[in-house]
Amino acid sequence: MRSLKRTGSFCCRARSRKVTDTPSDRGQRIARCASCKVALWSNYLITNQGEHQRFLRVGTLDDPSLMPPGVHIHSASNLPWYIILDETPAADVFYDQKTTWPQDSLQRLKALCERTGAPYK
After folding, report:
1. Which of 2, 37, 53, 60 falls 20 to 30 Å from 69 in CA-CA distance?
2. Which long-range contacts (CB under 8 A, 24 or more apart) does 59-62 make?
3. Is 38 helix (H, G, I), strand (E, B) or coil?
């Protein structure tokens, strides 16, 4: 969860964005609002999917309830006030994709890998 800068209404409207690469683990490309710098989405370079697969920061949406989280990561370092509901899986650091993602998500990932030529892991 992130605190969002007020820009005329309740949250960041991200009229423009800046994309930067990071050296984290095997790298990721993060798109941030050019004004308030909040992260909007990431492309994890480990997937070899380039711009074809994005991990959206759902909290940046006007209505985040439309896309509830499928899994929480790095939950071991959550602040005490951040509550994770029992029905949502949580991993201390990261999770095993094949045992955590729903089958329809895994099928979409496999089809994407076939289209892009990236290995399906």
Report:
1. 37
2. 59/1, 59/2, 59/4, 60/2, 60/4, 60/11, 60/12, 60/14, 60/33, 62/11
3. coil
- What tokens were used for 78? 């959550």
Nearest to 96 by CA among 64, 67, 60, 71: 71
Q: What is the pLDDT of residues 15-38, one digit of tens each?
A: 667 777 777 666 788 888 888 888
Say which DSSP state 67 is in. Answer: S
Cα distances (angstroms) measured from residue 14 to each of 18, 36, 60, 61: 10, 8, 9, 10
Residue type (1 letter), 5: K
Ranking 59-63, 84-88, 89-93, 100-104 by mean pLDDT, the lowest is 59-63
| Residue 34 identity | A
